[in-house]
């Protein structure tokens, strides 16, 4: 792969008129040099910071020009390597039409085969999965901070912003992760996203090539698998046991260089990836030149001891992409999350996000930054953790002890949901259908498995119960309704 020093390309002849659109002028100048051969295929372009310094313009100007060239196919981004002129010497040529169609067909088939149910709407009920106690959110404080920001916003913040996100928010995210999770990172490694799902989708778009073997937990978070499949991945399910992802099984997947995991609180089984497995997973990534997408969707909720250090905090080789979200602490509609990336990947991810939606809405970012800086965020985390613990206790104390075909509830040390095994698929369906008739929501564990799993169907059965969505009184009412419906 070409690896010329960033400024070995002579672009000193480019002259930009400050009275006209700088980004468009730079785009035209670079496109002209590509078309006439002065910038041949596979030429590495300078990094945006270096080119901005050379031309005396802002980095945003350079990135907007690069984005336009990228969108029109004149240049391509290579993860960890930089921006290259597209051409015959490029290594990431577009898919032939037949192959592209085949990959899209495969992705659509996966979407049809997998049980990807849309998130339930309306007020939360027991025992909805994935919903925190957003009835406790300090909306008055949030409204006051929002009004303060929009009363007289800085004009500098009303134009196009950094696609990586508001700098102050990224600085505060980095400080929060350092203090609460032991994850040391630079704000330049943080990319703000519209929730964790967009972060996962960005990983899929930039890290997956059609036909690539990508490992996912099985059972696991199906929306992540769908994002990877749509990008062309061949999903390989890896078993989950009491210690988390089976790293020995992962090691047997030939050619796999990417794995998606939820180590702090596996989704949906609720187990925690053991320290030994964490070290084995990092060793796997180093040995195979692989990458790990770590989704820490509810890592703040730990009921004994402090939250576990994430994989990213143990990573010394730049192998882990850490996905975080504010939606499990605030409320899902906020749509605010973030990625912490190895330094070599941060610019490529920001540029790719700029093509999708330019950047996140500035008001939400600015208000969240102030919410964190003023201490409201940490206070709210403590309140949410205490509420989730109390609601967990209400479920554990009131759950019927003798449900035919249903195992006892497991101990719950983390997260916002639990998983209880059921002895057959038929019994799983019967329990869920009966609960639904009395207004109680449950998720089927069988829906979290890949469709081609070797595990027998009855061994996939179970109930996934969220316990944080409603107060203790509502949990007790739901449990009483279940006792009557199940005739216990």
Automatic annotation (TrEMBL):
SUPFAM superfamilies: PLP-dependent transferases (SSF53383), Winged helix' DNA-binding domain (SSF46785). One of its GO terms (molecular function) is DNA binding. Keywords: Aminotransferase, DNA-binding, Pyridoxal phosphate, Transcription, Transcription regulation, Transferase. Residues 20-88 form the HTH gntR-type domain. Pfam families: Aminotran_1_2, GntR. In the C-terminal section; belongs to the class-I pyridoxal-phosphate-dependent aminotransferase family. This is PLP-dependent aminotransferase family protein.
């Amino acid at each position: 792969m070409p690896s010329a020093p960033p400024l070995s390309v002579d672009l000193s002849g480019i002259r930009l008129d400050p009275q006209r659109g700088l980004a468009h002028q730079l785009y035209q100048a670079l496109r002209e040099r590509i078309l006439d051969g002065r910038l041949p295929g596979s030429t590495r372009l300078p990094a945006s910071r270096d080119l901005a310094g050379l031309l005396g313009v802002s980095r945003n100007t350079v990135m907007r020009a690069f984005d336009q060239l990228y969108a029109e196919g004149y240049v391509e981004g290579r993860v960890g390597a930089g921006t290259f002129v597209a051409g015959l010497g490029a290594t990431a040529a577009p898919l032939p039409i037949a192959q592209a169609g085949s990959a899209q067909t495969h992705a659509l088939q996966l979407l049809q085969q997998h049980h990807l149910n849309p998130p339930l709407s309306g007020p939360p009920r027991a025992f909805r999965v994935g919903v925190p106690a957003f009835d406790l959110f300090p909306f008055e404080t949030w409204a006051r901070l929002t009004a303060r920001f929009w009363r007289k916003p800085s004009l500098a913040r009303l134009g196009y912003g950094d696609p990586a996100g508001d700098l102050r928010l990224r600085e505060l995210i980095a400080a929060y992760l350092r203090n609460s999770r032991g994850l040391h990172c630079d704000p330049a490694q943080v990319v703000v996203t519209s929730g964790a799902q967009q972060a996962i989708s960005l990983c899929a778009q930039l890290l997956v090539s059609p036909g690539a073997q990508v490992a996912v937990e099985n059972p696991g978070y199906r929306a992540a698998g769908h994002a990877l499949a749509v990008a062309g991945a061949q999903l390989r399910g890896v078993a989950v046991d009491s210690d988390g992802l089976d790293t020995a099984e992962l090691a047997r997947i030939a050619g796999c260089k990417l794995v998606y995991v939820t180590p702090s609180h596996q989704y949906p089984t609720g187990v925690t990836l053991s320290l030994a497995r964490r070290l084995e997973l990092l060793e796997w990534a180093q040995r195979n030149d692989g990458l790990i997408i770590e989704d820490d969707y509810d890592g703040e909720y730990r009921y004994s001891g402090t939250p576990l250090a994430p994989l990213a905090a143990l990573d010394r080789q730049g192998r882990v992409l850490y996905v975080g979200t504010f939606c499990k602490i605030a409320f899902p509609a906020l749509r605010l999350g973030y990625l912490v990336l190895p330094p070599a990947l941060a610019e490529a991810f920001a540029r790719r996000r700029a093509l999708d939606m330019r950047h996140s809405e500035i008001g939400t970012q600015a208000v969240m930054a102030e919410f964190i800086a003023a201490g409201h965020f940490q206070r709210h985390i403590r309140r949410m953790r205490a509420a989730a613990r109390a609601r967990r206790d209400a479920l554990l104390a009131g759950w019927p002890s003798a449900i035919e075909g249903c195992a006892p509830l497991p101990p719950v040390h983390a997260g916002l949901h639990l998983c209880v095994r059921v002895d057959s698929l038929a019994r799983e369906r019967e329990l869920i259908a009966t609960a639904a008739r009395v207004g109680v929501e449950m998720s089927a564990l069988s829906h979290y498995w890949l469709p081609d799993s070797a595990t027998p169907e009855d061994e996939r059965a179970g109930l996934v119960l969220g316990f944080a969505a409603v107060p203790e009184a509502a949990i007790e009412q739901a449990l009483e309704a279940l006792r009557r419906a199940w005739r216990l």
